[in-house]
Amino acid sequence: MIAMIDFMRAMLTLPKPLVAWVMLLMAVNIVIPFAYLTTIEGQVVLGTALVGALIQVAIFSRKGFVRLLGIGHILWIPMVWWLWERLDLAAPAGFFQYWLVAVVVLNTISLVIDASDVFRYWNGERDPQLGPPN
Predict the structure, then answer these.
(1) Would residue 95 count as lying in a domain?
(2) How far from 97 is each of 64, 89, 94, CA to CA, in Å?
(3) Is residue 134 part of a domain?
(4) Prediction pTM value
(5) Does residue 49 sit within a domain?
(6) Range of 107's domain?
């Protein structure tokens, strides 16, 4: 639990636009799914986000705030694909469909950023971005 709090504190020290981006991702992947827990989509998005957060906290607790943290979103790849395939099943023009589109679009953008970060980590950029490991 302490590692999670330290991780959140570290994220809040990012530049404000990045903090806003992280908060937007948390809203669509953690907060809004609670409104749809009776749907398989809501359960999958929330579950995937929580597993990803656990992976990121584990990496953070061992290595600090490094570019490798993007690997925590690895499960988003099959989830985004699956949601993309399900978009036509959602009610047209309803908030549920808008939320699904937001998850697909925002998580895809995040995956591109994550892939770049992980690639940079594997190519030698391994120093913590926000200070030493905890």
Answers:
(1) yes
(2) 37, 9, 5
(3) no
(4) 0.89
(5) yes
(6) 2-122
Cβ contact 56:117 at 8 Å:
no
DSSP string, 1-63: -HHHHHHHHHHTTS-HHHHHHHHHHHIIIIIGGGGGTTSHHHHHHHHHHHHHHHHHHHHHHHH
Residues 45 and 29 sit within 8 Å (Cβ to Cβ): yes
The count of domains in the chain is 1
Q: What is the pLDDT of residues 53-107, one digit of tens each?
A: 999 999 999 999 999 999 999 999 999 999 999 888 766 668 999 999 999 999 9
DSSP 133: -
Residue carrying the six token digits 């694909």? 81
The answer to the question of residue 60 being in a domain is yes
